[in-house]
């Protein structure tokens, strides 16, 4: 199999993630899921695999909403995907409520979702659509909205915070209405932490609600060591590139890439492009060293840009960069007090609270992991590969 880092992956080309997908289906039996992961960790591939191979009785509706800029765009995306599924109840009725509501509001048969009368009545249409989906099929439905936080940010930027808050509250309302029956669940997926947007709304616009506190937070991180071995087999063994000491090779690949599939693919692609006949564990080290400061690979620039944009809205960008600059120089955990002392030596602060708040944001966003087993909070980079990149490019 040819490595295609960053490219779209479908069907049999989506390798591994069986443990994570099993966990997601198990949780969906109970409640909706808030799936968080940085860009390039593989969340879209996981959603695709769940959509292509659903559990018995489930009907997935997968929607990409990153470019949506108004609540009606979200309604349109869900309607379009649901309509393509052609799922039907025994009576053959499907999406009749929303079609009737649309026709009444537009005075036409689907003249366009951008009509003023349609846009202003997005809540009516969203409720009608969810009622259709919940009552017109024998399947259980899971609606997957990929890059949901970016859509919310777009709505706020284009139409104001009040519309963004209303959208979040309305979506929570329809979940509360239809989820108790077990017929409808949601997966809200995003590379930008929704908590950053909600905190901005609370701090700057007086938002009082918690729109996802009835959902299970499930972060997606690197693949398992077993799945890393699957990728090595597909991208190296099947391409007739011999691995010296295969078990040691896959263990080193897992260790150096943290099991992040895009970086496994980058390494394997270098081996494929170099027409390597044989590779050993040390070759992985050499390839990663050569690639770490390469401008042709995005690596973790998205993570840095997220701080520049979303953390800046919370006035926490300088603090975040300062904390990560300190942590990238340490392989092991660093105590919270050491971090606070370092930040205070670099920036003028009246209190420790902003540092602690920013640390919590970085923890929720998967930049860092936290350990309190020794009776105090300690932090380090979640991914060793990100720490090394940060040290070279941002340290």
Q: Which CATH class of the largest domain?
A: Alpha Beta
CATH fold type of the largest domain: Rossmann fold
Mean pLDDT: 91
Strand content: 5-15%
Helix content: 40-55%
Number of distinct helices: 18
Structural class: alpha/beta
Q: Please state the CA-atom Rg, rounded to the nearest Å.
A: 23 Å
Series of secondary-structure elements, N-terminal to C-terminal: HEHEHHHHEHHEHEHEHHEHHHEHHEEH
- Unreliable segments (pLDDT under 50, ≥5 consecutive)? none
Gross CATH architecture of the largest domain: 3-Layer(aba) Sandwich
Brief description of this entry?
By secondary structure, the chain is α/β, with parallel strands linked by helices. Helix content is 54%, strand content 11%. Strands 2-3-4-1-5 form a five-stranded parallel beta sheet, with helices on both faces.
């Amino acid at each position: 199999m040819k490595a295609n880092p960053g490219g779209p992956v479908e069907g049999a080309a989506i390798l591994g993630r069986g443990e994570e997908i099993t966990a997601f289906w198990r949780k969906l039996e109970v409640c909706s899921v808030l799936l968080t992961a940085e860009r390039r960790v593989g969340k879209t591939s996981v959603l695709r695999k769940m959509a292509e191979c659903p559990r018995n009785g489930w009907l997935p509706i997968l929607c990409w909403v990153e470019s949506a800029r108004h609540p009606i765009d979200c309604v349109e995306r869900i309607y379009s995907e649901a309509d393509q599924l052609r799922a039907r109840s025994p009576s053959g009725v499907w999406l009749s409520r929303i079609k009737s509501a649309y026709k009444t509001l537009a005075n036409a048969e689907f003249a366009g979702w951008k009509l003023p009368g349609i846009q202003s009545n997005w809540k009516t249409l969203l409720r009608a659509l969810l009622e259709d989906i919940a009552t017109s099929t024998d399947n259980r439905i899971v609606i997957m909205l990929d890059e949901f936080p970016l859509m919310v940010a777009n709505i706020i930027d284009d139409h104001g915070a009040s519309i963004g808050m209303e959208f979040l509250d309305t979506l929570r309302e329809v979940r509360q209405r239809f989820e108790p029956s077990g017929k409808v669940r949601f997966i809200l997926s995003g590379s930008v932490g929704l908590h950053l947007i909600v905190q901005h709304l609370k701090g700057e616009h007086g938002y009082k609600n918690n729109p996802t506190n009835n959902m299970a937070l499930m972060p997606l991180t690197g693949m398992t060591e077993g799945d890393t071995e699957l990728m090595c087999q597909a991208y190296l063994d099947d391409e007739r590139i011999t691995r010296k000491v295969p078990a040691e090779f896959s263990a080193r690949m897992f260790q150096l890439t943290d099991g992040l599939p895009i970086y496994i693919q980058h390494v394997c692609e270098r081996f494929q492009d170099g027409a390597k006949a044989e590779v050993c564990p040390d070759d992985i080290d050499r390839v990663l060293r050569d690639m770490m400061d390469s401008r042709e690979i995005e690596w973790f620039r998205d993570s840095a840009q997220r701080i520049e944009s979303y953390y800046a809205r919370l006035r926490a960008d300088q603090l975040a960069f300062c904390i990560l600059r300190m942590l990238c120089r340490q392989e092991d955990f660093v105590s919270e007090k050491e971090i606070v002392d370092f930040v205070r030596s670099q920036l003028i602060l009246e209190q420790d609270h902003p540092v602690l708040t920013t640390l919590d944001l970085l923890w929720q966003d998967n930049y860092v992991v936290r350990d309190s087993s020794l009776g105090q909070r300690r932090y380090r980079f979640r991914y060793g590969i990100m720490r090394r990149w940060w040290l070279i490019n941002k340290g």
